[in-house]
Amino acid sequence: MKKKMRVLWLSAIACNGNTHSFLNYPYMEQFLDDFEFIYHPVIDSEYSLEDIVSKEITCDILLIEGAISKEFKRADVSVVDIIEKYSKIVQKIVTVGTCATFGGIFRESGYEETSGLHFDKEEPLKTHKDLLDKTISVSGCPVHPEVLVNTLYAIKKSAALKLDNFLRPKEFYAYTVHNGCTRNEYFEYKVDNHRFGELEGCMFYDHGCQAPFTHGSCNKILWNEVNSKTRAGVPCMGCTEPTFPRQNLFSTKKNMAIPENLPVGVGKRVYLTLAGISKAFKIDRLEKKLIDD
To answer: Which pTM was predicted?
Structure first.
């Protein structure tokens, strides 16, 4: 009988969105052949939360969902104390979702000095520095289930994951959501979308699409193996980034008609040059499609 990796899923200040996203993983039966939860807030587990808090149960991976605050408790024990206890015995810690990684929407609510485990938005925290070498972050609101599961399998296989500055696996976060977007041709020729749900046109200039500066794999590893926000006609909201959620999600802030946030690595002068050249082209094939629709 093969040995399963033992996993503790600890819910901090969370909406359980990452839990529900994980439950959509299409190959759950295979996953549970290779991993077992000593505790999970939704899935049947061997131990109760009270057992986890009062004892020290052997496990290999600690998954943390939700934002962190010293004042927040589970089973009458500070969630920070639970993390510190199990961090000493696990091989790896994984922050699951944007709240656990950066603080997310709960940090923005102003709840009792809330943050991620290692970051307060973009800023590294001085606390838990001893856990940095053990931690992998998988941000997203919610996290893509395949990104989480593939990260766990990499840990199981002792694969050396290359991480970015926010401890995220580069395999999934080294490129932007814009990479792989089916609307890239519209972006290149500045053909804009004007209504949500339309399958044509780029949503960057008018609708606040953050795909050009959001690190993630949504347009490469499709949700439910079928779709993504931009494919469905909804702007990317930048949910993997430390600045999520921002205000006015569905509008593009501009200064003298120039978007305030430009694609990663593109300077303002370069953007203006490319935009000017692109506007000089009239691509009837693209423009006609929008008019016909």
So the answer is: 0.89
123: helix, strand or coil: strand
Dump pLDDT digits (tens) for 32-56: 999 999 999 999 999 999 999 999 9
Domain contains 179:
no
Distance between CA atoms of residues 73 and 61, nearest Å: 21
Binding residue per annotation — 239? yes
**Within this chain, do residues 88 and 230 fall inside the same structural domain, yes or no?**
no
- The answer to whether 59 is annotated as binding is no
d(CA 106, CA 245): 10
- Looking at the fold, whether 165 and 189 belong to one and the same domain comes out as no
pLDDT in tens, 8-20: 999 999 999 999 9
Total Cβ atoms within 10 A of residue 249:
16
Residue recorded with tokens 């041709």? 185
* Residues spanned by the domain of 52: 5-173
Q: Would you say 218 is a known binding-site residue? A: yes
Distance CA 146, CA 22 (A): 8
What is the predicted pLDDT for the residue at 228? 93
Residues 189 and 147 reside in one and the same domain? no
Q: What's the structural domain count of the chain?
A: 2
134: which residues sit within 8 A by CB, 6+ positions away?
87, 90, 91, 92, 93
Do 276 and 246 belong to one domain? yes
Determine which helix (DSSP H) or strand (DSSP E) holds 276, and give its type and residue range.
Answer: helix 268-280
For residues 258 and 179, give the distance between their C-alpha atoms in angstroms, rounded to a whole number. Answer: 22
